[in-house]
Design a protein that fits this description.
Layout lengths: L7 E9 L4 E3 H4 L7 H8 L3 E3 L7 H16 L8 E4 L11 H9 L7 E3 L6 H14 L5 E9 L9 H4 L4 E10 L7 E8 L7 E2 L21 E2 L1 H22 L9 E4 L4 H11 L10 H4 L6 H11 L7 E9 L3 E9 L5
Parallel strand pairs: 4-5, 4-6, 11-12
Antiparallel strand pairs: 1-7, 2-3, 6-7, 8-13, 9-10, 12-13
Bound molecules: oxa(dethia)-CoA.
Length: 336
Amino acid sequence: MTKNVKQLRIAGVGYSVPKTVITNDDLTKLYETSDEWIYTRTGIKERRVVSGNESAIDLGCDAASHALEKSGFKPEDIDCVIAAASAPPQLYPALACDIQTKLGIPNYVPSFDLTAACTGLIYALQVARGLIGSGLYKNILIVAADNNSRLVDWEDRGTSILFGDGAGALVVTEAEDGIDDILSLDIFADGAIGQYIYLNTLGKNCPLVEPCEETDNKIHMAGRDVYKFVVSTLPHYVEECIEHANMKAEDIDYLIPHQANQRIIEALQQRLGYSDEKVISNIKYYGNTSAASIPIALVEGVENCKIKLGSTAILCGFGAGMTWGAAVVRLRQGIC
Ligand code: UT7
């Protein structure tokens, strides 16, 4: 970035989860499993799922309303909306367009979705950083929302145990005081291992041509491959991101990782040499809520008094693509 770029301030953060709780014991009604198997391998005890017509759109709007309220901005102050869903309830219109309309954000404001699965929030933050940094937009609403429970195969016990639904949102703005809340941010992808987690959209060729191979539209995951890839790759990039902020691990107050598996969180914790007090984990109650998991963990961490604002945190995530990324951020007072 050039020297005269504008700096980004995180102005508000919010989250939303559905009310309906599905426990590990509930899952024993669907397939042969046990609370003990799931908890020891993942750290998950329960997850929230949408019910009836509730969807990621409702959760996203709710999370965005909270973030807006905390930011002190009104819907008419927002000049760009970016939504990062792993799989939005519809491919188009974009989830961001729905959120724009439902929240009363002016109907000319550019609104678009970005897909980077569970790394979506960090990717969106990087895009917003570029847009604010260049002076193109000033007040950006980022929403990460997923209703994974509609997309998992509820007969696949290796995958459906992991996921839950939820949404998180951030309002980011040009920092009038010139202090950047993004101390460093790196994003990456490796499409060569895209088969580790995939979700096809159903489609059929024109009936006048040879049909294509038919697929289902469920989440497929090679859990063990994902696990091995992440524990052998992510810690290095997290350390590198900290270096890019000209900091040392001990200078950072909190680790707020994507909530995918407690064992992965512990691998990161060990690598950074952090005590339990510095590591934010709520996977036990929400499972993996995809791109929403980092802001949910952040806001809940503040609500539970585990996180004190006026601090710094390393956020990190990974997901289908495979994509991954990390960011060292400043958490100012009043953001949630
Ligand atoms: O944001 C998305 C990111 N995704 C992830 O982070 C996933 C990372 N990976 C994981 O969390 C783990 O791989 C899982 C928790 C998904 C699975 O744990 P695992 O230790 O890798 O189990 P596995 O898939 O290798 O399966 C081991 C055994 C198998 O039995 P056999 O073939 O050895 O007889 C499975 O059939 O465990 C069996 N199994 C289960 N048993 C009881 C698989 N799922 C279950 C289950 N309950 N729910």
